TrEMBL record:
4Fe-4S found in the keyword field: yes
Chain positions covered by the region annotation Disordered: 1-20
Keywords carried by this UniProt record: 4Fe-4S, Iron, Iron-sulfur, Metal-binding, S-adenosyl-L-methionine
Residues in the signal sequence: none
Top-level taxonomy: Bacteria, Pseudomonadati, Myxococcota, Polyangia, Nannocystales
A Pfam family: Fer4_12
The protein's name in its UniProt record: 4Fe-4S single cluster domain-containing protein
Protein's UniProt keywords contain Metal-binding: yes
Cofactor: [4Fe-4S] cluster
Matching SUPFAM superfamilies: Radical SAM enzymes (SSF102114)
Organism from which the protein derives: Nannocystis punicea
Taxonomy, superkingdom: Bacteria
Length: 221
């Protein structure tokens, strides 16, 4: 057992293991949405992790850089939320964004395994490249548990064109299919959009294509 990026103790053995998360394994989470169509193909449970040491200039989520922010949640709790959301919303998958998921690899891998056990696809957006993750022994479990990576540092000088790939920030980033689950190129074509959601406590959340989201929020101010 070692200390993960969130400070929680994590099983970093690298194996796929069981789909039932350890009761003490925790993930530091910046935000989560039970059902969205703005963070990958189909209806997805989206989790934004807290903490990122890469700090790409122009990142749309700089408030997620600090490791001490967000909320520490057990992966078992998130897996229960995922199961309930799947049953309620007929989900297609789980998307993990950030922040930087590869800085909490054991917990993210465990959550992805829980999603797979529910027959859901898994997509991980990471600022590290596939090759960089392959060189990190602690990331092996994450690579084994993800169906698709969207990898590479965001580069504000190379923004993905409006008629390019959906959900991709900059043209240098790659879609790496580790399984065939999301490999159909048609899934990644089309126009980006944003979503505004109001939760049970009356809180408004907004997410989706960053540039479009900024315009929408500016028009509401």
């Amino acid at each position: 057992m070692t200390e993960g990026a969130s400070g929680a103790r994590s099983d970093m053995s690298g194996g796929t293991g069981t789909s039932v998360p350890s009761a003490e394994l925790r993930l530091r989470v910046a935000a989560r949405v039970a059902c969205t169509e703005a963070e990958g193909p189909g209806r997805r449970f989206a989790v934004w992790v807290q903490g990122c040491g890469l700090r790409c200039p122009g990142c749309c989520n700089p408030e997620f850089f600090a490791r001490e922010g967000g909320e520490s949640i057990t992966v078992a709790t998130l897996a229960d939320e995922l199961r309930l959301a799947r049953d309620l919303h007929a989900l297609d998958g789980l998307t993990v964004l950030g922040g930087e998921p590869s800085e909490q690899p054991a917990a993210v891998a465990a959550l992805c395994r829980a999603a797979r056990a529910l027959c859901l696809g898994t997509i991980v957006f990471t600022g590290r490249t596939h090759a960089e993750l392959q060189a990190l022994p602690e990331a092996r479990a994450l690579l084994e548990a993800a169906d698709t990576l969207v990898d590479g540092r965001f580069d504000a000088r190379l923004r993905e064109p409006a008629d390019g790939r959906r959900w991709i920030g900059s043209s240098n980033q790659q879609i790496v299919h580790l399984t065939s689950r999301h490999a159909d190129p048609a899934l990644w074509r089309g126009r980006d959009h944003v979503e505004l959601q109001i939760d049970g406590a009356g809180r408004l959340t907004a997410h989706g294509a960053p540039d479009l989201l900024r315009r929408v929020l500016k028009s509401m101010s």
